[in-house]
Amino acid sequence: MSNIIDLKLVELVDKIKKKELSSTEVTIAFIERSKKSKKLNAYISENYENAIKKAKIFDQKPDFKKKLPGIPIAVKDLFCTKNIRTTAGSKILENFVPTYESTVTQNILDEGGIIIGKLNCDEFAMGSSNETSYFGNVQNPVSENLVPGGSSGGSSSALAAKLTPATIGTDTGGSIRQPASFTGTVGLKPTYGSCSRYGIVAFASSLDQAGPMTHDVKDCSLMLEIISNYDTKDSTSVEFKRENYLNNLNDNIKGKKIGIPKEYRVDGMPKEIDELWEKGIKIIRENGGQIVEISLPNTNYALPTYYIVAPAEASSNLSRYDGVKYGFRSKGENLIDMYEKTRSEGFGDEVKRRIMIGTYVLSSGYYDAYYLKAQKVRRLIKNDFDEAYKKVDAILTPSTPSSAFKIGEKLNDPVSMYLNDIFTVPINLAGLPAISIPAGHDKKGYPLGLQVIGKAFDEQSILNIAFALEKNISFKNNITDWWIK
Amino acid sequence: MTIDLKTVKHISKLSRISIDDNKAKKLGKDLNSIFSFIEKLNELDTKNTEPLTSIAETTLKLRKDEIKSENIREDILKNSPDKNKDFFVVPKVIE
Fold first, then answer.
1. What is the pTM of this model?
2. What is the ipTM of this complex?
3. What is the DSSP string of A352-399?
4. Which of A91, A303, A356, A381 to substitute to test the interface with B, most B CBs within 10 Å?
């Protein structure tokens, strides 16, 4: 039998159900590997002892009807977990222990999942390389000193290194899909309103969505099925018929119309990315899909729009960190002084930068010129997709304009860092679902991803298209365990 | 448009984040490069476009007016950096 850690999520579930493996064996296998992998710095908090206890309890009275029967899972440290420290990668929440459980992690627990730890991420999910975390950089298991992407960088690293059989991240502008692409894994951002935002540390509430990160499309379908539900605790949660995504998974894409947006052929994009895209197009055609050239004319305005809308919402959301009710507090001469010092010392540079951008664009005299303008352009961007979806069922693009870069390479140039999200940001602005799947390697041997974007609430179609692509690409991640001595 | 040091200081005041002059200068530089990137939006005519405020264009649902006691006072107070019995403590506000 192959090693436990090499099994996919769906295979592990199957083996536990057939009693070929126990929850305790599986949980210990992933914990042992996590302990040997400290060099990756993927975890912020470990919940190992407690997890093993839970696994033993599960094995005494196993419930095989559950979808995650005694399966160990580590999650991004942006999800509030009752009685387990939740930091959002920030000093300001270094000692914060939630008194409640996020809906998404509750769904995992309800299906028999066991939380083994909380994974590193960019501070308040603001970053594309996991370099803004107060808890340090995360290594990409693909190669030493390579970023794992961000903001769900601990999640992508832990998944690719097989420290967890699956994980969940959050995606505000690409924070699931870009790290998935950088580590050769699958990541899906659901339609806005599909997964509850209750108990997720808020960044930009009109864009934030939780989503699965897994080794393959089957595992992704199972995880989505588990975490997506209508939730009255989130006022923007949407009631719609959620599918049995895994049962309905099907690689028949005959007659599907797939759009190729010409605006995504950006200047200076590496040839390898273009070739990867062509490879995807060829597979669609060979499997009976129809390729349709489409135009999303306002694509170039998506990043500037995002860098107004997201910081504006962040400045408002993060005003709650004032050192009074929870979190870090600095000493001050008076109340205002205490606020200012607490926030100055408690937040990192990127978070402060974004709070200040947001405060500025919302401030008196600038609101119309920036914030209102951005909301109007956001409408134009959404209209582009609405028009395109009159002609096509889904859209195929690269996930990122480049492969993973070295730690430190883009830290001093915020705009160049922001350009990482050029293919992912428009999808958040339009609230659509999109999946990134590994599709090849560049010259350096680093993974590259393809993105399939769907119509709102049509996650099943993008899973099916991704499933067909995956079968034909048969991607292999060449990870050598270099971090284990 | 350029954001000068005075404006940076003003934004930091509004954001309740104290910064020293050195940091303010560096931040001013970053903000200027980000805003020159954002200025691109002015190329677009949006006179007749309605702003998009929320993707989930649903009306808020009413719920039953029931008491639910999920967050317990003692648990919540545990996370407080400074407390006295059942109260959060802050620096003196009234002289």
1. 0.96
2. 0.94
3. HHHHHHHHHHHSTTTIIIIIIHHHHHHHHHHHHHHHHTTT-SEEEEES
4. A356
